[in-house]
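Let us work through a complete example step by step.
Step 1: write down the sequence.
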Amino acid sequence: MSSWFHMIALAAWLLILPPVGHAESFTIAAAADLRFALDEIVERYREKHPEQQVRVIYGSSGKMTTQIINGAPYDLFFSADIAFPERLQAAGMTTTDPAVYAIGRIVLWSNTLDASKLDLEDLARDPRIRRIAIAQPAHAPYGLRAQEALQSVGAWEAVQPRLVFGENIAHAAQMVESGAADVGIIALSLARFPELARHPYHLVDESLHNPLTQGFVVTRRAADHPGVLAFADFMASATAHAIMQRFGFVMPQPAAPN
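Step 2: predict the structure and record it as tokens.
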């Protein structure tokens, strides 16, 4: 298991640690495609607010939605699909309206093949490709978009025997990096992380799938938490937008001044 994915797995254990004895602590639940971009944003936020303790848990958007409904202690939720925050709002679990913070993209990526010379149709016909990793479509938006793209080019049925499923998009990327899969359909934001960026990728045509409109919401438990609201505002800053764009996210609107 690679070091960067190992960090993602360990992050989940933070939930069972005793709470930090600090009045300004809060916890963010975030889609796994944000792993590297959001870590950097939190670091920059802490430079401005050193008194605040920010914890981030990464996972699949669908499972985190279920966790919040079941009482998980998350204050902010950054989903890879705004439909999940909207579901929470409909269930009365939110303080703010769901807001779009980015548009995501999917890519073909490989640790052993030149993915920049591949397309989705090659996944069904290239004999070198024995296993294809995607996130689980049932609860991971990036996995569902991968399925939609494969269906659009008529390759979904043909690749069925070759598919291996990651728990979330970071897990799918790790499967390719480790050699458990030959190619993966992963988040552009992960393909741009330095450890993965050593290998080229192929950007999947966004017209082949529904948009990865990513949204966030402040949960009901954080209604009176000024630090949570301050971080939500920081996500709309020029600083945060610049980091997100560097990792390949498309910003839905001009950045607000710092």
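Step 3: interpret the result. The beta strands are 26-31, 54-59, 76-78, 99-104, 106-109, 132-135, 163-166, 183-187, 201-203, 212-218.
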